[in-house]
TrEMBL record:
Protein name (record): Inositol oxygenase
Cofactor binding, note field: Binds 2 iron ions per subunit.
Name of the top EC class for this enzyme: oxidoreductase
Annotated InterPro entries: Inositol_oxygenase (IPR007828)
Cofactor names: Fe cation
Record organism: Podospora pseudocomata
Amino acid sequence: MAPSAIYASEQPPLLLADGAALEVISDAVDKVNKLKGLSSPITAYDSESKFDVAKDKASFRQYETACERVRDFYSEQHARQTVEHNLRMRAHFFDPKRKREEMTIWQAMERLNTLIDDSDPDTDLSQIQHLLQSAEAIRRDGKPRWMQVTGLVHDLGKLMLFFKGCSTGQWDVVGDTFPVGCKWDEKCVFAKAFGQNPDREHPIYGTNNGIYTPGKGIDQFMMSWGHDEFLYLVLKDQSVLPREALAMIRYHSFYPWHHEGAYKEFMADGDEVLLRAVQAFNPYDLYSKTDEEPDVEKMKPYYMELIDEFFPQKVLKW
């Protein structure tokens, strides 16, 4: 059966073992990005990150080794992230008949903890502790409260694994993201793997601009389906997060854009602010994991206050 014939609605929600396997792939993908030697510039509203200055970024395994682990993953992802698939997943997300689970942010963090608990190969910390590490690194560097809470929630989109029809496998949950509906930029990771994607032969989707207009803005993009886009769709109308925070959530895996400089011809006035925001967030996404165990109960009151500030309706529909 061709990849495009596998319908999301036919797939059951993934199980605990699938979640553990997903986090192993997610960790390997992060290592590839770390080994590229990523850095972030100073932004108009944030200073350069300080928490990671002393980290030995060269201590990660060799780039080729990490690539070997994720090559098969990207081969599948690049072949199956089609316009058809993305339209189908969004139609399912917005389907009024879809029963959307209701949870607070902290409940969502606890739910994520049960999905991928003890699965991270680098540390023995829980997922709540990992989320707190990102938020605490942002907090220690004196960044705004809205950015601290963004660090706290930015990976909660992986909850899509729990929800029937919201994902079909690891390939549409994690990994670098990119627009569908136009020719893929050569700066995308493992770009040659797009040769197996049926959209490359499409008379519109296979062209440089595809369904998009240069200069119209990056928000016109239909980004490849995954945990970034899922969480963005959940939070954009259920929070008071600023535009920069929503960009950090939606585009933090869009490495071809925020690190490689691709797709800039589609940017509009004001998009530079979003680009700088995502670049400022990047080191906290990649380098904040350590073996130092955060005291969850001690930190919880502070972050519950942040959650209440930026998610005033308390209970969200996922």
